[in-house]
Design a protein that fits this description.
The chain is built from ten helices and seven strands. The chain is an alpha+beta fold and about 240 residues long. A three-stranded antiparallel β-sheet has the order 3-4-5. Strands 1-2 form a two-stranded antiparallel ribbon. It starts with 7 loop residues before the first helix and ends with a helix.
Amino acid sequence: MENAPPSTSKLLTCWEQGLFLPPHERALLLLQVTCPETPFDELAQLSIGQRDGLLLQLRESLFGPRFISHADCPQCGERLELDFDVASILIAVPPPDETQMKLEQNGQCIVFRLPNSLDVAAVVAEPDLLARHRALLARCICAAGGDDFHDRLPNDVAESLEVRMAELDPQANVEIDLSCHECQSRWLAPFDIVSFLWTEINAWAKRTLQDVHLLASSYGWSEREIINMHPVKRQLYLQMVCG
């Protein structure tokens, strides 16, 4: 699946369309402009790990491989500076050969699939986090020897499914090993590429529109003319305007 970086114009349109959408819909918007030849249904049915792997590649093509961020120590509140790259969190695990997998549980064969963006969309309105998580798992059970787990998923089934899904789709649950230099605490911090990338795109879009405003005010060019200009040429004009 191709993962070519979108043009400035397409990325701005994507940003505009996604301003008031929930994260899972923003993720699909970004994949649509990145993989325009891939049908939407195919993108929506990618596992969460497959989706996030593509978004990590998109992030690298747009802003480079290096991540600079921060985190607060849960023990003492110290703010930590984070500096890591895409390669350190991009997990090279091939997707399963089959769309449906099997899990043996208490002598019973449970057929399941990995969660995708459509599953997230279906349960996101559930206010209780645990109930939402259980509903997500239940949606991914295709068959369970005649038992219906859609109303209540037993704890042992849920735990076994979580472990097996994490093994099959590790990119879906990326955690960064952190330590505090002040209190020596260590913990694993979850990393969400969807929210991280959208925050970067939001900042980029605002900077780009500020540049458009400056050049339009100085030269009278239209927004389309400025956005379609080669980035190097646009930057040279900005340098001349700013002195």
